[in-house]
Every structure is written in structure tokens, then in C-alpha cells.
Amino acid sequence: MLPTLWFYNRSSNENLSEKPVITSISKTSVKATHERLGSYFLYFQPPRISLFTDNVTNRRKVTGETNPTPFVKDAFHDAVINKKNIGALRKRNYGTKFAPVYDYDIAPGESKTIYLRLSDKEMDNAFEPGFENIFSFRKTEADDFYNDLIPQNVSEDRKKIARQAFAGLLWNKQYYHYDVEKWLTTSDGITPVNDGKLFGRNHDWKHLKNQNIISMPDKWEFPWYAAWDLAFHCIPMALMDPCFAKQQLLLMMREWYMKPDGQLPAYEWHFSDVNPPVQAWAALQIYRIEKTKNGKGDISFLKKIFQKLIINFTWWINRKDAKGNNIFHGGFLGLDNIGLFNRSIELPGNRRLEQADGTSWMGMYALNMMDIALEIAVVDDTFEEMSTKFYEHFILIAEALNQYGLWNDEDKFFYDVFGLTDASPIHLRIQSIVGLTTLFAVSTIQKKVRDLLPDFKKRSNWIEKYRRKNNRFWPNEERAEGNLILLSLVQQERLKSILRHLLNESEFLSPGGIRALSKFHETNHYTITLEDVQYSIQYDPGDSTSDLFGGNSNWRGPVWIPINYLIIQSIKKYGEFYGDELLVECPTGSGKQMNLKQVANELARRVISLFEKDAEGNRRLNGKYNWFYQRPENQDLVLFYEYFHGDDGNGLGASHQTGWTSLVASLINDLAKDE
């Protein structure tokens, strides 16, 4: 056992007058000194030996060069495993990496405890009586924290699920350091500067200087962030730590992250790819969570992020609406192989893919921006005109989505449209979450709020009268009692049609939530031929059998938690407006009528059921491995998968990607309010 203390090797690119160092104080303590961090002391029980080295690359193994000293970062391995240079390491009493070495023979079923203590203060007796209780105290503090955080009116099993989701989200915080310009233009002594680097991926992101603690999708794989993953992380994070959640969203908007033209970095292996613009939605969610939690919303946060979001919104308008008709093409939009072909590449000839989801995401974006501006305008009227601007823009996008050919009246569903120069546009009749994203753009405005904003009220009234007079598309509905105004991309009749697909267990509705692709395509494969190349799509409930588009080929059937969360939140918003005036069958064909709030709760229960124990003690996500997780020592261990089988709910992909799958904790929290 080698408990290890080390300094991150950054002394070569820091302006430090002195190199950080760890030095020996005694046989059971060392001192770590850093010009900026100050001093820390590590205390430990007597080891067999203590080893010092430096946290620097072993060039002999990497490049074949001779190392100037034997004190390289993997010297401990050579010393313990290969018995090399042990004497030199033992004689050294300083370095940037240190470990006491313990040797034990431990019989099966027995254990051995090693005490260590890291402190910023020098201590006479680091292991004084009572020290062994510190860990128990910390566990009690954690219990108190989660007991206060998680609703008490939920089952013990749900409490454990939520706690592990929250804990995994905290665990996935990670320091991320990536200076693109430095990487491209300087050598680290291993990789020389070359044209492949200078003009390779991310070469046009030289402004990007990542050096922060970031909420990662998955700490077990190589460190990486994704702009839309992170936005989803911030929702459950806001229940624990709204300050950190707000800081994370603002960080992505800062000038050393956002490109000067307004694009947000998608993810490390291709910053220029396009993720769905969910940052404004996430900002509103965080604002409302904190307001509910503390009784007061952070208007300053909304103002800061709104200013940066305007820049990003403008980038979308200028770059992704080529015809200027409010129909957006976006690219693969994080849904990877959801379409027939790679939506991130330019199509041959003068052809264009008009995307229902790209347009819907932008409708949602405009509506979120309107909501943020309205929230601010109530206390600062300088934002009132921006409320009107995004209100009008949303109406234009809603008109384009509904009037320019993306709705298929035969199937009662929204589709991408493939535009041809020499023929009529073709509906790509693939029933997927591409069509369901149209549900996401929905909001309500209280009349009392509108009455506080005379310019917004006057302008919105004029727009409505003008459009109705000229028989133009109108996306608003009002409650009979006049307290609420509904704005949505989908009007009531089309909403009911989409919900019939969504809630059909032979189509989108699975026992564990909403599938990414309708099960209708299990036997009804969709095929199209373009320039003698045939493209086909079918329902794959688990790991995909198709080629990769965008790096993850698992969007043709499985259940994804973030998309389900958006669907649930959107249907709930419709339910707040319609109440019992709009009832639908759930499931479709069952004869069981529900209002939309009840539908949202039913979907939430199905998603949560992926993680819950059933009557036999099995969890759906464990699949064929339930025998292992029924062992007493494993029965409360819950894994957080990337996605879930569209039929049986078995967990798939990375089993430790708490990331956006931690949204199950938010679903448990929200559902507790209604149960």
C-alpha cells in the first residue's frame, strides 16, 4: 500500500521563484511547500520504508531518451515491483512525489486500517485519542446533509438512489487544464510542433484557456466536459449547491471558453461541433430551484448569463439558419446517429437538411430568453424590450416549424425535411425524438406579470391583433379565467397527436421511460436511396448496430435520462396550463384518462423504476447481473449508466457516468412534491 502525496507538474509553466517541494520532517511526517498554496503537513503511521521522487515524465519509456536522474514519476513502480533503485529513493529526503510503503499479509475476511492525516497546520500529535472517530463524524455530517436535501416522504430505496446520484455528481468534479494555443505552438518535450497539430482539430480555438474545476460527465474515463451535458448536471447540482451550479454555467460563457463569434465549446475532441442550446433553459431551472429553496432568486446571475447568451443566440441565428427563414439545421446536435446519415456534414450538391429538432431547440432557446428577460424586467425595466424581442422571435420560429413543411399530416408528427433542387422536399419519416423536441418550447406568462410591463403588453397585443387579422400562425392560448397565457411550438390538436405517439407502448413509451426512436421502426424500417446509396434506419433497443455518427451510435432506441427529463418538464408545463381541461389516454389505447400533470408524473415513475428494487429485490438496470447485486454487500449499490435498453431497461454504456443520469435525483425530488 502506497498512499501518495504529490504536486501537479506545472512548475515549468508557472512564474514561481521556487519549485514546490515535499521534504522529510521525521520518520512519520513530511512537509509540502508551495509558493502560492503555502505549507501542508502529512502525518502517517510508521511504514516499512519511505520513498521520494519527482512527478516528471520517464522519458526513457516515452521517447527513448536518457533520463537525467532516476527520480521520475513511475520510479515507485520500478522500486516496489521490479526492485530497481530502491536504495537511491530511500536515501532521498525530498521531491515532488512522496509515499510511505506498507506491507501486510491480510487473511480473507480480515482487514487492516492505515491512518494518515493531511493538515495545513503543524501538529504535535496528529493521531491523538479520538482521531479514529473523525471518519465517523464525517459520515454523520454527510447523513445530516443528505437527510436535509432528500425529501423524507419517499421510500428508503429512493432516498438511497438519490443520495448516490448526488454523491456521484460531486465525485465527478475534476480539475481540467487545456490551453489550446500552448498545446499547438509549443512542445512538451514529447510531441514536437508540427503541421498536424498546427492545423488539426481545435486549431481555430486558440483563445480557449481551460483551467478550472468542472463537472465532468464521467470521472472514470479521460477528463472531458461537454457543454450540454454540463447544463444538465447543473439541475441536480442546484439542489445541493446552487452557487457552484451557477458558476459552472457562467464559466462556459466566459471569454476564455466562448469563441469570439459566440459559439460554445462542445467537447474536447471537437470544440466546433454543435450541442443543443440548453444553457438558457438550465439557467432558468437553476434560478427557480434556488428561488424555491431560499425564497429569493438571483437576478444578478440572470443578468450576467443573459448578456452572454445573447451572443451565443446570435451565433446560432447567423450560422445555422442559412436561408434566413427560421428553419435551422444545427448538425447532429448531440443525438449522434439519430438520423439516416451524418447530419454534421455538408450534403452533396445544393441539398439541405431542414431539421425539426434544430428548429425546435431554437424555439425553446428564444422562449427561455424571453422568460429570463421577463423575470429581470419586473425589477429592471431596461430588459423589457428584450422580452419583446425574444417573444417576437419565438413566434417567427413557431410559424416556420408549423407552416413550412416539417409537419406531416398523415402521420401527425414532425420530421426533418430533405430539400432537393430538382424535386419536391422529402419528409424523412423517422419517428424519433427529433419530432418530440417540438414539445420542449413551452412557457406560460402570468397576466399580472404582463400588466407590470406596459411596453411588453402593448407590443404583444399589437402582434396578436396583426397576425390574427392577417390569418397568420398564432402560437398562444389563454385560459378562460384569463390568468395565464400559454406559448408553445405545438398547438393543442397537434400536441394531442404527438402525445398519442409518445404514450403508445408499441411506439415511444417503454417501462423505463421514452425511447429515443419509436419501436414502430422495429418492423417498419425506414429506407431512402440518394445517388445510388441506400440509407436505412431501424429500432435498436440496446447498443446500436449502425455506423457511428458523431462518436456515439446509441440513439436508435434506448432511453436517455436527459431527454426524458426535458419531456417530463415540458408536459408538466402544459399540464399547469390545461389542468383537467385536457385529458389523454395513458398508455395510448388503455382507456385510462389522465391530465398532463399526471402523465408527467407517470413518466417520472417509469424512469425512476429503472433504478428501484422490485418485489423480488431486482433493479431493472442490473439486468442479468441482478444475482450479484442481491448479495448483502451489494444490494444498495446503484450504478448510473449512460443510457438504458428500450425494452427491458438494462443499463448500457459506461456504468459510472453519473453525469446527466443524476437527473433521476431531481425526478425523485420533484415527484415527492406530488405524492
Structure description:
By secondary structure, this protein is an alpha+beta fold. Strand 19 and strand 20 form a beta hairpin. It starts with a strand and ends with a helix. Helix 10 (about 280-295) packs antiparallel against helix 11 and helix 10 (about 280-295) packs parallel to helix 12. The strands form 10 sheets. Strands 6-2-3-4-8 form a 5-stranded antiparallel sheet, with no helix packed on it. A 3-stranded antiparallel sheet has the order 1-7-5. The mean pLDDT is about 90. Among the domains are: about 5-130, no CATH class; about 320-335 and about 345-490, no CATH class.
Helices, strands, pairings?
Elements: E1 5-6, E2 21-26, E3 29-34, E4 38-44, E5 49-53, H1 59-62, H2 75-80, H3 86-91, E6 94-95, E7 97-101, E8 116-119, H4 134-149, H5 156-171, E9 173-179, H6 180-185, H7 195-198, E10 209-215, H8 227-240, H9 242-253, H10 279-294, H11 299-320, E11 352-354, H12 356-377, H13 384-403, E12 407-408, E13 413-414, E14 416-419, E15 426-428, H14 433-436, E16 442-446, H15 447-451, H16 454-469, E17 476-478, E18 484-488, H17 492-502, E19 509-510, E20 513-514, E21 526-530, E22 533-537, H18 561-578, E23 583-585, E24 593-595, H19 596-609, H20 626-629, E25 643-644, E26 651-652, H21 658-661, H22 663-672
Antiparallel strand pairs: 1-7, 2-3, 2-6, 3-4, 4-8, 5-7, 9-10, 11-14, 12-13, 14-15, 16-18, 17-18, 19-20, 21-22, 23-24, 25-26
Helix pairs in contact: 5-22, 8-9, 8-10, 9-10, 9-11, 10-11, 10-12, 11-12, 12-13, 13-16, 18-19, 19-22
